Amino acid sequence: MEVPRTYISKIENGKAIPTLGSLERLAHALEVDVCQLVRDSRSRREEEVAAILADPFLAEIASLLPQLEQLHRTLIYGAVRDAASGRRRSA
């Protein structure tokens, strides 16, 4: 990035705000887009939702969820969470 290591440390610890030029050099050094360095949790969540809905099966389930009662939605959320974490529910 052609800046002192202390400057990088200050950025990492929230004691300095990088300039746009510094962000561009950092993104280039990390081989990522500048947007990836400055995106917030909302944009990360939107990307995760888009990735999930790209799966046709999951998109179909998501479209049906609003029609279910709260209890059934809760059961489905729990089953999906368990499947994603690799756990199995016992009867």
Descriptive overview:
The protein has 91 residues and is mostly helical. The protein is 68% helix and 0% strand. The radius of gyration is 21 Å and the shape is elongated.
Q: What is the chains' assembly state?
A: single chain
Number of helices: 6
- Strands, total number: 0
Radius of gyration: 21 Å
What is the mean predicted local confidence, pLDDT? 84
**Low-pLDDT sequence parts:** none
Write down the secondary-structure element order: HHHHHH
> Helix/strand-derived class?
mainly alpha
Strand content: under 5%
Distance between the termini: 57 Å
Largest sheet: none
Which term fits the overall shape? elongated
Helix content: 55-70%
List the helices and strands and how they pair.
Blueprint: H1 5-12, H2 20-30, H3 34-38, H4 41-53, H5 56-64, H6 70-85
Brief rundown of the structure:
The chain is mainly α. It contains 6 helices and no strands.
Structure characteristics:
91 residues; mainly alpha; 6 helices; 68% helix; 0% strand; elongated
